[in-house]
UniProtKB/TrEMBL annotation:
An individual GO BP term: signal transduction
Family designation: Belongs to the peptidase S41A family.
Keyword annotations: Hydrolase, Protease, Serine protease
The name this protein goes by in its record: Tail-specific protease
Pfam families membership: DUF3340, PDZ, Peptidase_S41, TSP_NTD
InterPro entries: ClpP/crotonase-like_dom_sf (IPR029045), PDZ (IPR001478), PDZ_sf (IPR036034), Peptidase_S41A (IPR004447), Tail-specific_protease (IPR005151), Tail_Prtase_C (IPR020992), TSP_N (IPR040573)
EC number: 3.4.21.102
Source superkingdom: Bacteria
Gene name linked to the record: prc_2
Record GO cellular component, one term: outer membrane-bounded periplasmic space
GO molecular function (one): serine-type endopeptidase activity
Amino acid sequence: MTRKSSISAALRTAIGGKWRLFTICLLGSGLVTASWLSTAATARPAAPTANEQRIALLVSALMDRHHLSEMRVNDEISKRAMEMFFKTLDPMKLYFLQSDIDQFARENDKIDDYIRKGDVRLANRIYELFLLRVDTSIGYAEKYIDAEHDYTKDETFIRDPDEIPWAKNAAEIEDRWRKRVKYDLLLQTADEVDDVEAKEKMHKRYKSIRRRWMQTSMDELLEYFLSAVTTSFDPHSSYMSPNNLKNFKIQLSLSLDGIGASLESKYGETIVRRIIPGGAADKDGRLQVDDVITSVGQGTSGEMIDIAEMKLTDVVEKIRGKPQTTVRLEVKPSDGTTLKVLDIVREHIELKDSEARSDILIRDSKGEPLAGAAEDATTADEASGKILEQNQAGGGTFKIGVINLPSFYMDMEARGQGNPNYKSTTRDVRNLLEDFNRQNVDLVIVDLRFNGGGSLPESVDTTGLFIDQGPIVQVKGPDGRVQPYPDDDPGAVWTKPVIVVINKFSASASEIFAGAIQDYGRGIVVGDKTTHGKGTVQQLTDLGRQVLPINPPNLGALKLTIQQFYRPGGDSTQNRGVVSDVELPSRTTHWEVGEADLDYPIKFDRVRPLPHQNYPFAAAQAVNELRRRSAERVSESEYFAKEKKSIARYLERKENPTITLNKEKFLAERAEVNTEKEQEELYEDLQDTDKPVFASTPYNEELIKIAFDYLEVLGDARLVAK
């Protein structure tokens, strides 16, 4: 319905760590998962304050001075920003009329003038009108939920908003909502939800949408508005509200203070979705998944505050707190028993679900699992490898180490304070590799699927664990100067073969790692056709520190694109990504979630290559042989045959921007291809931090067979890095 309820948009923002901002990493009461699907906010935006004016001035000045493109906040940016702001509020063109767009068109070239003066009142004026349109439109939706629909009629719903203009009048908006509701009811039918339950769910959903928009705070509105300006420069420059800045720092540090529970807001209720292993709630043992939290109190005697209809981030703030303090939760248990009050003592929580994790797989001389070998892999409880012990009847074996790396994380604050034990991807991966060496592992698979990036220094240092010395990445700023970031530490922790697994959601720091491994010939890249294609560097500027360096106020932060990065060989990954050496068929390759699919991406270019060592692990002859063997298996695989058919159906459907609302035809098409459901399931899987390091799937089995082929093809060359 909106940008925040679009699974496809959610996946698209899962790049560069951005999805973690929108899902808001809050484990003080927990990690907020899928929070935009139905959260309600707390207060209607008030008039801009002096702080909001100061923030607008700072954002404008910093964009002018430091953005990579050397563009300025000018009339062109102003026109883009107006379009982007309307798109942010109403991406599906279900609320605003063409007359609304025309009403503000006279100010298309004035946003630059406004924010240079710290004037953000335009955002409020547009939003006030938007709230009127929301109220009217949700009224239409609720009307048509209970209406009779003719499902035999051959009419269509246009699912691509770029294919339709803004509605000319109220009657056209109403008809769009009639079709939207009809489409949503058909989705419920496809999911085998009975009619009564489907209508009840939809009433709750639309009421929740209305409530959320009606209660949006000024901080949120300012973030939408200023980010419309910054994303008019490039997709990754954005203003981060004070609350999102705090949560961003939590995510990078992988720690916080709270009870350790993952929450979701759904239809106005706060639901426990996961208990974090080892956290306070887990140790207490009484709070359970699917329990509903109804009120929160501070200490052993503080007033219990009803949290029904409260915005999830506000609930989180009430549950967060200093270690060794008590929070009381009134809970409606999932088993239907009576309400109970739980007093839980908060603790410092380590967010190990985003740490590097590993497993060791033992294979026989044919690349098959040894008889009876269990392949469950470790969970996220600790960043350590394990070996699956198995007696062997005879013949050789291979040990394959797998490292699952969800992000390139670093505790910036701890590092800045000089703490030598700050949380670090490089330190964790080093420990895993040293363990692999002790256990005589033959090959390492580094799984970067869905790794949206993170810290640039960590990607450089982690890559350095696999090479002796040399440049890892080059960066170029607005002045055109190119600066290399080398690994200066002599020697490599891991000297045997490496396979890097990627998909279209591997971005930014992941692409630095994969590109350097490929350029050095240090290993091979396997997976989707290319990575995401995010080849730019962002700098996070704390705006409060621009005002008061000591004891600064929290004014949020500007995430600003300041550099473009390039591989040691000179190519940027921007828009093009890192191309796999061995491609495996996958629907995600074809989803429009790459950098080139975003608005106003920075262009691809090249710089001079830097001298670097060439390792013997990716010779053209060896890579061609790996492709040939994999292609033969894929051509005979039932799993990949189905995947290829799904890809063909998806590509065919993508050419048609409409969806039939004829029930018979709709259900038939839905049985053939259900991209929305697949993306929703994928997004939910991204939130599942309990999944194995390397699940036993047909896709992963092909990766293992490629690994076995790789070791065989390399022969003696795999023993020592030269």
